[in-house]
Amino acid sequence: MAYSKNLAVLFNMLLLAPSILATDPDPLQDFCVADLDGKTISVNGHPCKPMSEAGDDFLFSSKLAMAGNTSTPNGSAVTELDVAEWPGTNTLGVSMNRVDFAPGGTNPPHIHPRATEIGIVMKGELLVGIIGSLDSGNKLYSKVLRAGETFLIPRGLMHFQFNVGKTEASMVVSFNSQNPGIVFVPLTVFGSNPPIPTPVLTKAFRVDAGVVELLKSKFAAGF
Fold first, then answer.
1. Ramachandran area for residue 151 (φ above 0: left; ψ -120 to 50: alpha; else beta)
2. What is the mean pLDDT of residues 163-167?
3. What is the DSSP string of the chain?
4. pLDDT for 62-114, tens place per residue?
5. 207 Cβ partners below 8 Å, 6+ apart?
């Protein structure tokens, strides 16, 4: 009897596995322009606007046409084009970013927990680095890429870009999620709210408390 119950549970888990492992759901209609002000609770994506209210421009955007302001601590600017900025991508499982770099600017080590990323360098010279998981021995895969060259970053792997040229650089990336998410490693570790206890970080990074407190002070105000 117990064996039969366990077998039934296992069978149900196998049936549910595809839905549990799936990322963005497949759309069930041509368009579902996001109603960002909608009150309906939705697990994946936003509720759809009535097509009569969606207008005619939801398939087009010019938000990546202009360079961002790189006068930031990182010397870079990220222009996001996810579902919040482009409601027409709702339920379609895609989004884009543009990143602009001043000379010496960086897009610091970060992770996209919900998407694989593919990108193309539009101008300049960028050092692109991807760090493998512990399974790969935390191997760093890196290469200097120039205009027209592309890169691929598997979902969940830490990566960065750094402008190694003497002029401005830019890249455009796309994701297989309408909301790929981002975890900036320095900000997450040293600027979390509430803060990670200093003894945890001194032990993890094998440094003195003064070093940890200094780093925390750098990220107290965010990026």
1. beta
2. 97
3. -HHHHHHHHHHHHHHHHHHHH-SSPPPSSS---B-TT-----SSS-PBPPHHHH-S-TT---TTSS-----STTSEEEEEESTTT-GGGTTT--EEEEEEE-TT-EEEEEE-TT--EEEEEEESEEEEEEE--GGGTS-EEEEEEETT-EEEE-TT-EEEEEE-SSS-EEEEEEESSSS---EEHHHHHHS-SSPPPHHHHHHHHT--HHHHHHHHHHSTT--
4. 999 999 999 999 999 999 998 888 988 888 889 999 999 999 999 999 999 99
5. none
